[in-house]
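In this notation, each integer encodes one residue's backbone shape. One such record reads:

___
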Amino acid sequence: MQTHHYRAAGDRVGQSAALNHVGWLHAQLGAQEQALVHCQQSLALAQETGDLNGQAHAWDSLGYIHHRLGGNAEAVDCYRQAIELFRRMGDLHSEAAGLVCFGDIHRATGRHDAGHRAWSRALASADELGLPETDPQRAGLLHRLRGPQVRAMPRSAQRNRP
């Protein structure tokens, strides 16, 4: 694991980022328990060093891991923490990505209105960022917001949906 290089150099921010990356890779490979350990270590280091960016990304990874482990309440809390930090830092793109996941977890737990609100906020952020219609994040949001009953809603109307 590459984190020993950062540890040897005394770079705790780099070590935190590396731990989060390793955790994320474990999560993608389905090794959620290992992923959880790495991302929790990443978060602890990021909090100790005051690295808001590292904290936000660790919270986001932890939300994904908890969702995969079936810990929906934990996932909601983690995503909420990540979104708040991304917002505080002005990282609109990461905030929008977090809102997509936040909406997904709400939808998965039957809170359809909360999911729709999160996706609508993410779409507003995508608009603010100027993401084109062909952007995968925008396309995924439009699919989520339209649902099976609405297929051809103009972009301008999507922003005005309740």
